[in-house]
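R.M. (postdoc): so does anyone remember the format we settled on? I'll just put the structure tokens first.
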């Protein structure tokens, strides 16, 4: 349910250089996520419940974690960690289930990956139209991956999809990353084509500055930034 993480299936991250997204991994590690933004099922259920087949559960992160929790051989510490992640994922699923009648959806999902100090290192912001059943439209959407990585540092991957045509924008303040991202264009195009999408463009840009900064800084600023301008003039003269 929710944003399904799977190998080589998301245009923004199928081969994105998300090295050490957990603050630990080597430079060759890459974040991979699927564009199939499926309407998730809410609530925590044991493996095999809610009408899900064992094969379907094995293909999802939540299903694997539920199997770990139910396993009599798993260490207590591992079960506790798995339970915390399941609760986190369920919270994200409940967020996706809110206001399903609205024509558009804006959702922020925090991926349960943490750095050495326990800080959150990965999130994805989703903007999408909704279908007739409330599902997110994977063929017309925008995904913004906000990643804090060990080697690349703070990186934004902006994915815009219009009728399965994908435009990618990598934002990072380290000069050497621009050549790295551009060198992966052919690899990205092949991976995107394999799931029925077409890569239109790949851009590399520095990180946004000031009030445009995405993340914690996005809500900061003065009250004047959000106050309408003073109304002047009259609507009718008598």
């Amino acid at each position: 349910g929710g944003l399904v993480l799977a190998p080589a299936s998301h245009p923004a991250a199928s081969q994105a250089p998300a090295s050490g997204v957990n603050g630990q991994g080597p430079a060759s590690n890459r974040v991979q996520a699927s564009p199939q933004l499926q309407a998730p099922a809410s609530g925590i259920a044991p493996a095999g419940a809610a009408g899900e087949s064992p094969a379907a559960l094995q293909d999802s992160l939540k299903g694997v974690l539920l199997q770990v929790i139910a396993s009599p051989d798993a260490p207590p510490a591992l079960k506790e960690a798995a339970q915390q992640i399941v609760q986190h994922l369920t919270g994200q699923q409940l967020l996706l289930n809110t206001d399903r009648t609205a024509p558009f959806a804006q959702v922020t999902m925090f991926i349960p990956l943490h750095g050495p100090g326990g800080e959150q290192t990965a999130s994805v912001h989703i903007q999408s139209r909704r279908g007739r059943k409330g599902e997110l439209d994977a063929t017309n959407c925008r995904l913004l991956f906000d990643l804090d990585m060990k080697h690349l540092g703070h990186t934004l991957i902006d994915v815009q999809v219009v009728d399965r045509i994908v435009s990618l924008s990598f934002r990072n303040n380290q000069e050497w990353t621009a050549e790295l991202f551009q060198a992966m264009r052919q690899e990205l195009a092949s991976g995107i084509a394999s799931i029925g999408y077409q890569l239109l463009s790949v851009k590399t840009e520095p990180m946004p500055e000031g009030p445009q900064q995405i993340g914690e800084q996005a809500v900061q600023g003065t009250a004047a930034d959000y106050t309408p301008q003073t109304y002047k003039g009259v609507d009718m003269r008598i």
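R.M.: ...and that's the designed sequence above, right after the tokens. Also worth knowing: The chain has a mean pLDDT of 68. The radius of gyration is 20 Å.
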